[in-house]
Amino acid sequence: MIDKGQRRNSPTLQGRGRGWGLSVDHLDRLHGFAREMRNAPTAPEQKLWSRLSRSQLGGFKFRRQATIGNRIVDFLCPQRGLIIEVDGDTHIDPAADARRDEALGIAGYRVARVTNSDVMTNVDGVLTLVLETLMSLPDRRDIPHPNPSPSGEGLAFER
């Protein structure tokens, strides 16, 4: 069943703002995989999420296993554009992680990487690092959109 105005046969960049140049089917698979990851978190992810959820850290909201383009990130603070990646045994290629971080940086995000060991043995230190990083970043709501609407569109009407 198709909902939300999605047309599976629409060109890649259409689809009600879901964009990123990905097909609706690909995005659906990606979101499904992220949902599976949220339902089966690793112990370090679960421990960190218990301290980040419900705006517990400085009032900042976080999403877990959020999709950005064709990537799934462990934790995302959309207000500041901070991504927290909890690296375990699957992160064995630092060059691949660096390329991924660079691509996310070009998209306007900052990536902070912590290890499973850091989260499990020093979660307070990790939270201090995350909060300091959040406080050093500008609020994304204050940054102008790179593609503003044409002159006159989207402006409030005066009465």
Provide the CATH architecture of the domain at 41-138.
3-Layer(aba) Sandwich
Please tally the helical runs, counting DSSP H or I stretches of 4 or more residues: 5
What is CATH's topology name of the domain at 41-138? Endonuclease, Chain A
Whole-number radius of gyration?
18 Å
CATH homologous superfamily descriptor of the domain at 41-138 = VSR Endonuclease
Mind summarizing the main beta sheet?
4 strands, mixed
Report on this structure.
This protein has 159 residues and is an alpha+beta fold. The chain has a domain at 41-138: Endonuclease, Chain A (3-Layer(aba) Sandwich). It is 37% helix and 16% strand. A four-stranded mixed beta sheet has the order 1-2-3-4, with helices on both faces. The longest helix is centred in the N-terminal third of the chain and has 16 residues, at 24-39.
